[in-house]
User: Fold Trypsin-co-occurring domain-containing protein from Streptomyces afghaniensis 772.
Amino acid sequence: MIELSEMIRQLRWELNAAMADGAGERVRFELGPVEIETTVAVDREAEANGKVRFWVVEAGGSGRDTRSRTQRITLTLQPKAVAPDGTSRNALISGGEVDGER
Assistant:
């Protein structure tokens, strides 16, 4: 299992890579809402601060801890490209043309 924050970090990396690949391309796509549906295990530490952690459950995985409670969650993210001056705009990505594609 991986932490939910790591899954989002990897998604951000993939979207950044797609944006970089699309720079200068004639065909680009405006990135709309990204919806992620996943099952997470929720663990709470028994210490005084009681930190809660969310772990993404892998399909077919045996589970990290049978005492963990699992929840199905849906996240809707609104990706934005942020310029060095702090202004944001809609993110643009591109994809390769596939033979026979219309």
